[in-house]
Amino acid sequence: MWIDAMITIKSHIRALAFRNPILLAGIGSFIQVWHLDQFNQFQSLNYEQSLLEDIDGIKFIQSNDRLEEAESFQFVIYSVRFVQFCKIRFEKNLNPSNIEIIKEQKIHSFYRTLDLASVPLALSDQTTQQLFIWINSRNEIIEFDSLNEGPKSKIYGPRKCILYAAKFLSITSEYSIVASGTVFKEIIIWSLEFESLKVTELQVLQGHDGIIFDLQYNAQFNLLISVSDDRSLRIWSDHRIGFCPQSFRDWASNRFESKQIYYGHEARITRTQIVIYNNFPLVVSIGEDSYIIAWSLVEPFRMLKRKKFFRNNRFWSITMGSDYLVAGGSDGSIHFLLIEEFLELNSYRSIRYQNDGISFIKSICLLDSALFKMITYDNRGMFHYVDRENSYKILRFENFDFEKNFNDYIRMALNQNRNRIVIGSKYGHLGLIRIESNTINLLAIEKISSSKIFDLSFVDENQLIYSTVNGRIKILNIKDDRLIESKNEYLLPNSRHRWTSCGLIHQNLLIVGDQSGNVFGYYLHSSNPSFRFRNIHGTNSVTIIKKHPKTCKIYSSGRNGKIMEYYCRMDQTRNFVEDFFHLRTFTLFSSMDWIAGFQFSLDSIHLAWGFESRYFQIWNVTENIKLFDEDCGGGHRCWDIRLETNPKEPITQIEFVYYQQNSLIRLLNRKNFEINNPSVFHNFPSIPRKINCCQLIFETDDSFFIMIAGEDTVIQILQYHRKFARFDVKQFLYGHISNVTSIRCWNDPTSQCVYVASVGGRSQLIIWRISSDPDDHNQLITQEKNINFNGYYNNQTDFEVAIRRSINNPSNIDRDSIDVRYLDVDINKVTMDGEKLQLRIIVACSDRTIRIFDYFEEIHSSSKSQLVLRIVLEAAQTCINRIRIISRIDVSKLVDDLGVHSSNDGLIHFWSIDNDYDETIDHQSSNPQRLKSIQSFRIHQTGINAIDLQINDRESIILASGADDNSIALSLFSIIDIGTNIDQTAKFHLILNKTIIDSNSHHCQITDVKFHQSILMTVSIDQQLICWQIESIDQLEIRRLFTRNLSIADISSMRLLETKHSRCLSDSLWLVCGEGYQFVAINHCSDQQTIREEKKFMKNSILETNTII
Fold this sequence. Notes:
Helix content is 4%, strand content 56%. With 1109 residues, the protein is mainly beta. Among the domains are: 11-109, no CATH class; 113-123 and 131-263, YVTN repeat-like/Quinoprotein amine dehydrogenase (Methylamine Dehydrogenase, Chain H, 7 Propeller); 267-325, no CATH class; 494-582, Thrombin, subunit H. An 8-stranded antiparallel β-sheet has the order 46-47-48-49-60-59-58-57, with no helix packed on it. A 5-stranded mixed β-sheet has the order 65-66-67-68-72, with no helix packed on it. Strands 1-84-83-82 form a 4-stranded antiparallel β-sheet, with helices on one face. Strand 78 and strand 79 (1015-1020) form a beta hairpin. Mean pLDDT is 81; it is low at 1-7, 64-69, 671-685, 918-926, 982-986 and 1085-1109.
């Protein structure tokens, strides 16, 4: 007997419904249940399969059936073809184990249901019966009562048209009033009288310039809200102020008129929700631009708040949940947003200092003192301070002539505790200012250099660096309120702006960033840099360098809008840095083009702040939310920010000050700023727009680490916790400039790391090296080793420069070659000794060629690596879709590795990979080499999208393939004649013994096939997973075991994650990807006891198995 169950699902959320305290979310074809607990926070309970197709809507239709110890709600789920009546029962204490969803009647509907309502009808025996009516996408109203098996009646609207939106505005036992939003840009208001079935068109509203996507109505204010793909939201109301229809006659006389038109979304608007907040009516709209916008429904008409969430999240559903806005969309996340927080997020108190005492401000430092709040320095050589009464006063230091030594030039550096300021002059003077609870003292000014002080930067609480002419750097120590200069001097390499902008000291390593976008690492005993990262932040300055407090990772940010991640490899004593290397670009889904600073959480960067054009912004990096936005004129102006923290909350107060138009403006939030409160926001990991590929990279005792990538160019590493059945996004890997098509990995058993090759559009191949952090095994160290564009360019900057130049001079670059799409990749080891690792990467390309790369890395210096394009081979007559390598170790008769690839003409090609191929071949030649050692077999009549191989007793090869013609093929090949070269070129010969083809099981093109022992798994665009048993290898006899409908659309790939037994498919866990991802557990049981145990196992989602990759 076979049982399968869903453990974890990640798909589009098109339906949300709330009735206190239950929230229902339609995720694909599954219902997820949440409840609002006594702390006013939503908690996830469980999943329940509902329909065999995606859920379009959920609606509660009946009041509570209150019982003594339990409650139940009735609700309806509707999709394109079904309307499912359900009831949810739960105990009053909301014990998750006692939540039960009871499925009742299921009605087939041939068209999409848009809205549904219930009407109580009085019967002759003085009882009541519920009459259910719904309107579908053909503008039909269907009546149904619980006593009939089928529809009671079907009534067409006044016009036969296609609808994307419809709403019941009013419904009684006598009539219903309907608003229908058509694809012809109109809204039809019409009525249906139940007794006579008379249909009357009351009004047609025009004004939209696109399809109507949603309609909402508020009876209290008689307001109709409509949204469209013309990106507008329109408010309609009767011209009579305060008029609200109460009867059929009122509705006949009601005339909606356009009251207000709102624009603000950057893409089409999908849904709206009317909210009454403190007796003030407003409407919230969501769209495919990731924005949630609140608008006022009464005068003064205006946009109230605008918030952007995930970059690729197209919002498709929204509901009200107590004090929350709950929204879901394409990335599978559910956002819980407190309405109060949403509307008052940027409610700040602004203080403006403007009087005769203020000149042009040169520098600002915010202080952490009860009496003194801020120190500024102006162009007249004068200090000012702001006290706790917000008075702006002159700060005088006796016995020091500032006008002579500093005048209009000063450099100021503030330590982390904000109680020490070091100042520098253009004449080489340095001074130390100490801020205490009730005094500000200038302790000393000393001339320590004959040249200008270009920059001062704290590298530790009591250490800082300063830079002077010709790139000279020195370290200063603050001890006993004195500045003590170190003896060592460090030199910056030549650059346009040869002075530092920030720095950090970690053990024996000094790391500095300069004004030209470079980062350098110096051993403290050496004056020249041992580690160089030229223009890693473009050509503008590096803004900050910080170390993560829990790991050996270093991060830098710059004025190019990027954060870079590095790693310090320590010796065994953990006190000496042996190696310092760049890992990757730390991805921020924000719009900032100048990152000024960031703050850490336990795992990674949590907050980042900087500038987008004229605006200063603070972003919650973990949840990709913009927290603060202020028009300050841009980052070139004088400014400072202070974030007040405590151990429990990342931020409790924000203080931001800037100088603009002869005014000093200080902003403080009015109340505690609780960013990490779970009641404000909850989300699952973000997913790309479509996932093209997935890969298990490695596992620990309690987790899987999985890579997914697709159409949005960013690779994600997910951690799946077995015990809690929960996902965490561990890392975003940025580097691809086009969609990622394939990922393959090779596990290095000696160093316990994984090498990953990822390929995509624009002829791009990237090699990543991933290992666990020795300080925390739940954290990863991911290094972007090499990036290659078709052998021409080894970094993105050179490639983009060449592309831009080719626009004006096309002869500079072969655009056809650069635009080649890399469609698939495979990787295997060639050699590995104690000093060097060599990997071979073979890429299938859209230009009918195979490209073979060699990757070299020195074992003891992971920063030294090289990726070389060795040869380009013409290997097919059409586009090559899939490629695999068979190691000669796995097949006894092979003397070389064997390559297999499929093409768009239905052919399977075999060829040998000569380990001694000529390395002198010009890999940049425009004429690719012809692949000689090749055998081709026609298996399908159309393009082959998926292949997988299995070696049988090291003597023969079984190949499974799936194609565009919906067919699955199983082919048996024998290897013969080894030892004699056929036509003086080939070193092998294959015979196709038998092929069987099944064309009827799947209804759409096959996208992936996978072997596991004697089991074959296949998936298709038709959202079906089919399991086959191979019963005879010699005769290729197979039997279909079962078919499972999956919840995600446009399935592209799958991966076996683990299995408990080695000889049968018992307790195996599969990851299926497409428009989302879904974990499917499949259990092969032999007795009822095992069935009961596996049911319990699936319920608790606890996996205790070993992985087979």
